[in-house]
Design brief:
Blueprint lengths: L1 H14 L12 E7 L4 E5 L12 H11 L5 E8 L9 H8 L6 E6 L4 E5 L1 H6 L6
Parallel strand pairs: 3-4
Antiparallel strand pairs: 1-2, 1-3, 4-5
């Protein structure tokens, strides 16, 4: 699993270069691994109307679904932050539609990592414990 996690984090980190974040300058990349073995990426896409911003996690999962994938195994989310970021509520709910036990790897560009499960696990813990 470590090699798979390393690969997902590396691919997700690379996806950050595709982000569109002119307002916050906070770029995030994600890579989702599907049961088929396919790995699809996403990067955050901001909008002037903040509510229309799309997080990297959902971009990656939408790319996967558009490509015919719906069985997700794990997702890595990478940002240039002091601590691994916690996905927003929508990015916890969205994967729960497909796999409530999705493994989420949260990483920083400097190598910090936290691994947990998606929505099912998050309900039982405080965000800082996730």
């Amino acid at each position: 699993m470590d090699m798979q996690v390393n690969y997902l984090v590396r691919i997700g980190s690379t996806a950050r270069s595709k982000a569109y974040a002119p307002y916050s300058k906070f770029v995030v990349g994600a890579a989702v691994k599907c049961k088929s073995g396919a790995v699809l990426v996403g990067a955050n896409i901001e909008n002037r109307s903040f509510g229309l911003t799309i997080c990297a996690e959902r971009v990656a999962m939408c790319a996967a679904v558009a490509g015919g994938e719906q069985d997700f195994v794990a997702i890595a989310v990478t940002a240039d932050s002091d601590e691994p970021i916690v996905p927003c509520g929508a990015c916890l709910q969205f994967p729960a539609e497909f796999n409530p036990d999705l493994i989420i790897v949260r990483a920083t560009v400097l190598g910090q990592r936290k691994i947990g499960k998606s929505f099912a696990s998050f309900r039982r813990t405080r965000p800082e414990e996730f």
